[in-house]
Design brief:
The structure holds 2 protein chains of 2 kinds. By secondary structure, chain A is mainly alpha-helical. Helix content of chain A is 69%, strand content 0%. Chain B folds into 2 domains: 10-102, Orthogonal Bundle (Rna Polymerase Sigma Factor, Chain: A); 108-197, Arc Repressor Mutant, subunit A. Helices cover 66% and strands 0% of the residues of chain B. Chain B has helices at residues 10-17, 21-28, 32-54, 57-74, 84-102, 132-139, 144-155, 160-167, 171-197. Chain B is elongated and about 55 Å long. Classes of the chains: A mainly alpha, B mainly alpha. At the A-B interface, helix 1, helix 2 and helix 7 of A face helix 3, helix 4, helix 6 and helix 9 of B.
Chain lengths: 182, 198
């Protein structure tokens, strides 16, 4: 026999799930899954494959562009916000991480190389962003995913370089920082 | 989400078990986009499950994170014998219970012998002017054992036999625990109602 409390809860069941986890949770899951894979870290390879993906996307985008020219009034930012409302917040989260880690590199010679690599990723990301307005339906989500992966790649590069610096500094027999070719 | 006591015909049930099959298959291959999709589908509901179990937002987020890493790691063993939602929820709940045990927040209220022998009221009290917010916050005032049994039964849709299995107690314990929890909740709600009238 149901009393009115039970009835009330059953009727309003959906409303009990109103809390939202922060976006940090997914970012941490994503990272944990990467670490689980524990493959040797070869980000230059990743960069190359990112470039290949970009080329494919550009080709796909161009074809889509020929087929439908309907939604071009939308700006890239508007389109991104529509496809992935949480993107802006995730971007802020990643940028904050990236800036904090990059700041730690200030006094190390690796700074310039890393800066150049990050700039290269930035270029790729810029193209991805511009591509989004022309992307055929269905491809948009993939672009967003690629954008997010680019952020993760940046974080990984920085983490890797910082890790190496720490390891080298710990080694008293070898006080000079060796050429980092990761 | 899942509802208790499904009376749907077998065909629909079968279909239900294969919900999100494509996403799950892609997740099994380690497709990160599919994993994100699965997280998007179930993350929020599972966060609310965690919050009800452990009460605290930081702990709930940690549990949500660890549970989803577990889920993606163990997904290979999922064979579509239940719905993916039910499978996910069970992992989340088990993690929450383990967390509570480790924190030595013992589920001592489940030890029925030690608790509350006051007689059942003859008439079930009718709480007037219920709101979701009021029920949620009153639930947070319940002792852990009461809150957990109440949540598992009323909100997560388990029956007493399943709750017994989850918590390692008998079905009868779950039942009596539930009715005590409900009574306590009604008391809290009515006390509040009265005090807010002044």
């Amino acid at each position: 026999m149901q009393d009115n409390l039970e009835q009330f809860v059953r009727t309003n069941r959906e409303a009990f799930d109103d809390a939202r986890p922060s976006l940090k949770v997914w970012a941490d899951i994503d990272r944990a899954l990467d670490q689980k894979k524990s493959r040797p870290f070869q980000w230059r390879k990743i960069l190359k494959s990112a470039a290949a993906v970009l080329l494919l996307l550009l080709a796909g985008g161009l074809i889509g562009h020929q087929i439908s020219r309907g939604t071009e009034e939308n700006t890239a930012a508007e389109t991104l916000a529509r496809i992935s409302p949480e993107l802006a917040e995730l971007e802020a989260h990643y940028n904050q991480q990236i800036n904090a880690k990059f700041a730690k590199l200030a006094n190390y010679p690796q700074r310039e190389t890393v800066k150049a690599d990050l700039a290269q990723i930035d270029e790729t990301m810029e193209e991805l962003r511009n591509e989004i307005v022309k992307a055929p339906a269905g491809m948009e989500k993939e672009i967003v995913t690629n954008l997010l992966r680019s952020y993760q790649l940046k974080v990984q590069i920085l983490e890797r370089v910082l890790e190496r610096i720490r390891a080298n500094e710990g080694d008293l027999n070898n006080p000079t920082l060796d050429e980092t070719s990761i | 989400m899942l509802t208790a006591g499904s009376k749907q015909p077998a065909v629909i049930k079968l279909d239900y078990a294969s919900t999100h099959r494509e996403i799950v298959e892609a997740c099994k291959k380690g497709d990160r986009q599919a994993q994100f999709e699965l997280y998007r589908l179930y993350g929020k509901a599972m966060y609310n499950v965690c919050l009800r179990m452990v009460k605290n937002e930081t702990d709930a987020e940690d549990l949500l994170q660890n549970s989803f890493v577990d889920i993606f790691t163990k997904l290979d063993s999922f064979r579509f014998q239940s719905s993916i939602g039910a499978w996910i929820k069970r992992i989340v709940i088990n993690n929450c219970i383990n967390f509570l045990k480790k924190r030595r927040l013992p589920l001592e209220e489940l030890d029925v012998e030690r608790h509350d022998h006051s007689p059942q009221p003859a008439v079930t009290p009718v709480v007037i002017g219920l709101s979701v917010e009021a029920v949620k916050s009153a639930m947070m005032e319940l002792p852990d054992g009461y809150r957990i049994v109440f949540s598992l039964y009323m909100l997560e849709g388990y029956d007493h036999k399943e709750i017994g299995e989850i918590l390692g107690v008998t079905e009868a314990t779950s039942k009596s625990q539930y009715s005590r929890a409900k009574r306590k909740l009604q008391e809290i709600l009515m006390t509040r109602k009265q005090s807010s009238n002044y």
